[in-house]
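Whether sequence alone determines local backbone shape is best considered at the level of individual chains. The sequence in question and its structure tokens are set out directly beneath this paragraph.

===
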Amino acid sequence: MEETGGTLIHPYDNADIIAGQGTVALELLSEIATLDAIITPVGGGGLLSGVCLAGKGTYEELRIFGAEPQGADDAARSFAAGELVVNESVNTIADGLRTNLGERTWPIIRDHVETIITLSDEQITGAMKLLAERAKLLVEPSAAVALAAVLTDEFKALTGIQQIGVVLSGGNVECPRLI
């Protein structure tokens, strides 16, 4: 930035980035206007925050969920504590989710997300394998987190969800041996 005079645009804790990420919800709702819920992976929270704002702004009854690895669970711990909690260290195969929530993203998530479901690396790689075998989709671990959450007993115990948008975000597969 010093050399070029460039401007830093934060990759997730920026109002324009959050707004842009919200188009995910708009696309899903344009296909199925009465989705019961949307679940996204959560790292820094830009995608989840955008989905919250655009989704709830379009369809107030929409339920929003987040999914993150147990080895980088600051969103779940923040949600449980009611205040922003940061990871001191992270250990997960889902390298795209090794970030902490941002100052902008946390309040949006706190106010609009129903719950955050955490997953083990084994559950995440299981979802990657399922996507490869059944849907012929090769996704990175960070993308598979949302599907892994939907497959849990915790999610299955939620009532009133018939149609759910599962966001598979990310495209960097560095571990093809896992599937």
